[in-house]
Design a protein that fits this description.
The complex is a heterodimer.
Chain A lengths: L1 E2 L7 E3 L14 E4 L1 H11 L5 E2 L5 E4 L2 E7 L7 E7 L2 E5 L21 E6 L11 H13 L5 E5 L5 H11 L6 E3 L4 H9 L7 E3 L12 E4 L1 H4 L2 H4 L4 E6 L6 H6 L4 E3 L7 H11 L3 E7 L1 H10 L4 E3 L12
Parallel strand pairs in A: 1-2, 2-3, 3-4, 8-9, 9-16, 10-13, 10-14, 11-12, 11-13, 14-15, 16-17
Antiparallel strand pairs in A: 5-6, 6-7, 7-8
Chain B lengths: L1 H12 L3 H14 L4 H10 L9 H11 L2 H11 L2 H8 L12 H9 L6 H10 L3 H12 L8 H12 L3 H8 L7 H7 L18 E2 L1 E2 L10 E7 L2 E7 L4 E4 L11 H6 L4 E9 L11 H5 L9 H6 L2 E11 L2 E2 L5 H13 L6 E3 L8 H10 L5 E8 L7 E2 L4 E5 L3 E12 L8 E9 L5 E7 L5 H13 L1 E5 L2 E4 L4 E6 L1 E4 L7 E4 L2 E6 L10 H5 L4
Parallel strand pairs in B: 1-11, 2-12, 7-9
Antiparallel strand pairs in B: 3-10, 4-5, 4-6, 6-7, 7-8, 10-12, 13-14, 13-17, 13-18, 14-15, 16-17, 18-21, 19-20
Helix pairs in contact in B: 1-2, 1-9, 2-10, 4-8, 5-6, 6-9, 8-9
The chains are: A alpha/beta, B alpha+beta.
Chain lengths: ~300, ~525
């Protein structure tokens, strides 16, 4: 039994639908119904056993249950219980409000296997309202052009759209073709996104004053050259560091992340106080150092094939 | 401070030069004095707050943050000021953000010892972007991709005056440039600093790419490998300026003392060597005299300096810059005849029949202090900056050596997070590698990505931010010269090393030896 295996496995527990966690080709899959729906959308008809939040099953004497992680639609932490010992794998998570998914629930445990994508004290994600306000102000100041926002097709794109709606922006939002099916899937799961229009194929004049959401790979691509005087924005936690934004030719950095920032990571450890913490995915060294300073037992869990800077 | 911080961030994220100019110009028009003058100084690199050095910022950080967490963060971000600004706890809640001039006044009126406390109090009143701008302002190193020239161009655009007019008086004025703004807004005449010795912008040359020029139109001179210097004297006061307009009088007091004339001249500062009959020594010798604030008599005697003059800008109080080179050359020769020949001479014109003959002479030149040849249009006025078609520099071919990458470090600024600084070595006689230099440039963005991946995949040891790599990659390194050096274990030091090619095809054992480098000594 594997959790988020990077190669096809006979039995896989999958925390959420991002491609580096949910691969295709496993034998049996257990995941939340939403994650299974996302995998089916991405990989075709994939079989799996749905496990709703708070529910579980037994396998080989271990009780396995799924709990909300607040990262993207369907994202889960996995709790393993055996002989009175409780191990929680957070998967990717965040603690902030997100209108597109069920909020994180802290799960008491003896061993916590935590992500650390933004595990450096320089990463504090600002309130999302401020970042959405920046986006709306840039749009208002650029009515003859458009703003193209780079956002991952699963999770980030829908969150940015939902937050724009929450801020009262009710004009149509234009999306890259690669995002349509995922947005439809969110809408079908009771995440209203308002009116969305495919940007691909539209004339420049139709996109004046528009907000266009596209996958980051499209920003520096020929696709973006058909937009009217676009300002390139990017919604990512990495935008907190100026040179990261510059290296990607971003003109309007929006610090919006679906991962826990440094404060969320450390507050969660203080709240749960596991007797042991394993750190994976990201800056294991800095979060390990913080645990040492706070007398929490921790060690780094290096995963094959992951360098320091995974996309976030 | 918030408007200034927004300007800085706008400049960082804006790629277009025209948009950058517009951002600065808008700021200069709407911001009141003296804030805008301090901001202009910060952008042009003329703001110097003596009480705050970057060491003070590191000290402030180490006092508050765990040193290991700080180092890891600094290593990732690639910029100390930004790291501190981001790690600093946000307390700015309801506080009123300080203005730029309040910041400057507070920091200027404190002591170096108390400055970290004052700075910390200011940090607490700002948000993350404000803190970043504050630290950049306080240390003077903005690094926002703005040259002094661009800042002056923006000033010109803001107020509809020519940038050359701004340049002409710029170095006679001091931050916060109240007179400059008064003139820009049409409230006063252009400031007239005629009675002080100040810097005038240098005329600069373009590299002579593949073309050639006709020697009827162009005159050829040697290009000397020292430091370009301007001497300005009103009779009462004599000052020396380096290329960027920084005053260096204190480093070379004997030159200022010997200059017994009124005028402004342009030349190359060199150390007189004991080789080649008292000719100029290599740049290596001059380095002993650079960056020293106080010069002992022993230093002056051991490394005697002189100035080889190229041009004259003011003959007495007369501005001769609009005259053709030929007329200025006559004046320069007459002017120099009255100066102490131990300290001043005129750079000789190369007597060549035609361009091919000149190429032969250039190829045969072996003196250490010759960097190449200058070609100047005979009818050219002395114009500020780099004007097309008037002056060319034609450098000597660089030397190259095949070296092996040994260590790598992450870069700063736009290369932060990439392993972009490489230490490379050559072989000793007994088959060991010793470092011979370090290079940060010469490769394309694509090659940088490849090199970065090579470093990550071939790391054999880590020493703090430095990674030692598998000794398997050969780098072809180009450099202008190589000298004896006591500071390096290998005993050699390169001048201007840069990566000229990645030799992925070449086995490391076939890289060059240190004795091969020694054979290239001047």
């Amino acid at each position: 039994m594997w959790i988020d295996p990077s190669r096809p496995a006979a039995r896989a527990l999958v925390t959420h639908g991002h491609a580096d966690h949910a691969r295709s080709g496993h034998g049996a899959v257990w995941a939340t119904p939403e994650t299974l729906a996302i995998m089916a959308l991405r990989y075709g008809t994939e079989m799996g056993t749905p496990v709703p939040y708070g529910e579980g099953f037994e396998h080989g004497g271990v009780k396995i249950s799924f709990h909300p992680a607040g990262h993207v639609l369907g994202s889960a932490q996995i709790l393993l219980e055996h002989a009175g010992e409780r191990v929680v794998v957070t998967g990717d998570y965040k603690r902030r409000f997100d209108p597109t998914c069920t909020p994180f629930e802290p799960v008491a445990c003896d061993v916590l296997i935590t992500e650390a994508t933004f595990g450096l004290p320089v990463f504090t994600h600002p309130p999302i309202e401020d970042e959405i306000a920046k986006l709306l102000a840039a749009r208002a100041a650029n009515v003859d052009g458009c703003i193209v926002v780079g956002a991952y097709a699963l999770g980030k794109a829908q969150r940015v759209i939902a937050e724009l709606r929450r801020a009262g922006y009710d004009a149509p939002i234009y999306i890259h073709g690669a995002m349509q099916k995922m947005c439809d899937l969110y809408a079908a799961h009771n995440v209203p996104l308002g009116e969305l229009i495919m940007a691909t194929g539209l004339a420049k004049s139709e996109l004046k004053g528009a907000i266009v959401i596209a996958p980051p790979s499209a920003l520096n691509d020929r696709w973006a050259q058909r937009l009217p005087e676009p300002i390139t924005a990017m919604a990512s936690g990495w935008m907190r560091v100026r040179q990261r934004a510059r290296q990607r030719n971003v003109e309007l950095p929006l610090v919006i992340s679906d991962h826990a920032d440094w404060t969320e990571l450390t507050d969660t450890l203080l709240e749960l106080r596991p007797s042991e913490t394993w750190i994976t995915h990201g800056r294991t060294d800095a979060l390990g150092r913080w645990c040492e300073l706070h007398q929490l037992k921790a060690r780094a869990l290096d995963l094959v094939g992951r360098e320091d800077e995974d996309e976030g | 401070m918030q408007t200034f911080a927004a300007l800085i961030d706008g400049l960082i994220y804006t790629r277009s030069r025209d948009l950058k100019i517009r951002l600065i110009a808008d700021y200069l028009r709407i911001t009141p004095d003296p804030d805008r003058g301090w901001a202009l100084a910060a952008l042009a690199g003329t703001l110097n707050i003596a009480t705050v050095k970057s060491a003070a910022i590191r000290a402030m950080a180490e006092e508050r943050f765990d040193p290991m967490l700080f180092r890891m963060s600094r290593d990732y971000v690639g910029d100390t000021a930004e790291t501190v600004a981001l790690m600093w706890p946000d307390k700015s809640g309801g506080d009123v953000a300080p203005t730029v001039s309040e910041v400057i006044d507070l920091l200027n009126s404190t002591s170096r010892a108390r400055a970290p406390v004052v700075l910390a109090e200011l940090m607490d009143r700002l948000d993350a972007n404000g803190r970043y701008a504050l630290l950049k302002l306080a240390t003077g190193g903005m690094r926002v991709g703005i040259s002094a020239r661009l800042a002056k161009t923006a000033f010109g655009q803001a107020f509809g005056v020519s940038v050359d007019d701004v340049e002409e008086v710029w170095h006679a004025l001091r931050p916060p440039y109240a007179e400059l703004f008064a003139w820009g807004e049409g409230r006063t005449e252009r400031p007239d600093p005629a009675d002080s010795a100040f810097f005038r912008p240098f005329m600069l040359a373009h590299p002579l790419e593949d073309g050639s020029v006709h020697l009827d139109e162009f005159v050829a001179e040697w290009k000397w490998d020292g430091i370009r210097i301007q001497i300005a004297s009103t009779g009462g006061e004599t000052r020396l300026f380096s290329r960027g307009g920084d005053e260096v009088t204190g480093s070379f007091p004997e030159i200022a003392a010997a200059f017994n004339a009124i005028g402004v001249v342009d030349g190359e500062l060199l150390v007189r060597g004991d080789v080649q009959g008292g000719e100029a020594a290599s740049f290596n010798a001059l380095q002993q005299r650079l960056g020293r604030k106080n010069v002992t008599a022993a230093m002056q005697a051991e490394y005697p300096v002189f100035v080889r003059l190229y041009d004259i800008l003011f003959d007495g109080v007369e501005d001769v810059r609009s005259q053709p080179w030929t007329a200025r050359r006559d004046r320069l020769e007459r002017f120099t005849a009255n100066l102490d020949p131990v300290r001043f001479d005129v750079s000789a014109v190369i007597d060549a029949r035609d361009f091919d003959h000149l190429a032969e002479i250039r190829a045969a030149a072996r003196e250490a202090a010759i960097e190449g040849v200058m070609l100047k249009r005979r009818d050219s006025s002395y114009l500020a900056g780099r004007k097309v078609g008037l002056w060319y520099k034609w450098k000597r071919e660089p030397l190259v050596a095949d070296c092996v990458m040994m260590y790598a470090q992450r870069g700063s600024g736009k290369r932060s997070s990439y392993y972009s600084d490489y230490t490379f070595g050559c072989w000793t006689e007994d088959g060991n590698l010793l470092p011979v230099g370090k290079a940060y440039s010469g490769f394309s963005d694509e090659e940088l990505k490849w090199l970065d991946r090579f470093v990550r995949n071939n790391t054999v040891a880590r020493f703090g931010p430095v990674r030692e790599v598998e000794k398997s990659l050969v780098l072809e390194v180009a450099f202008d010269a190589v000298h004896e050096s006591k500071r390096h274990k290998s005993g050699v030091a390169m001048r201007f090393p840069r990566i000229s090619r990645l030799r992925r095809d070449k086995p490391a054992e076939e890289a060059d030896t240190i004795s091969a480098l020694r054979a290239m000594f001047d």
